[in-house]
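A protein record pairs a chain with a discrete description of its three-dimensional fold. The following entry can be read in just this way:
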Amino acid sequence: MNPAETTLISGATNGAEAEFGRLAEQYGLQEINYSFEGHNNVRSRGLHELSREELLKGDVSLTYVSRLLNRNYTQKGDTFRKVLQTLFHIVNTSEEVFVIGEIQGDQTVKGGTGWGTEFAKICNKPLFTFDQKKGGWFSWQKTDWEPHQNPLITRRHFAGLGTRFLEDSGQQAIAELFKETFGAAK
């Protein structure tokens, strides 16, 4: 993969997304960070603040998301809805998805990142999750997560999603993903 011809698509927030962005910049990748007005962004490089109309294109029923993720999001506010709408754009624009988080017993990923992960499944995108609790990568194989050693970025437009609570193991997993794919940083 040529870093100059590769684009990270992410969300500009702290934690995993900020780390994906930091490494994208270090390796010379292009970057698109979807966000919305008033969101707590820590990345400004490639920032695309979604308009109201763009956000509405990614609107989804909180009841549907609650059922899909086996959680109750129906009482969440406007900011949470905008996060879900932003995740739609991140996943929809990407060709493969890398997630840092925690896979739960029901096969979903913990937190708001879970919607991005489920949407990637719905869209049949190649999907890899580094589970910080289990300390390893897993790939989604139609109905189940399977252990996956050393995934590589193979598409020109890939999504980097994940938890705000990035642990050392997650940070190291992102670093190794970039190193294995692109070689040494610039």
Observations:
- The CA atoms of residues 17 and 161 lie 6 Å apart.
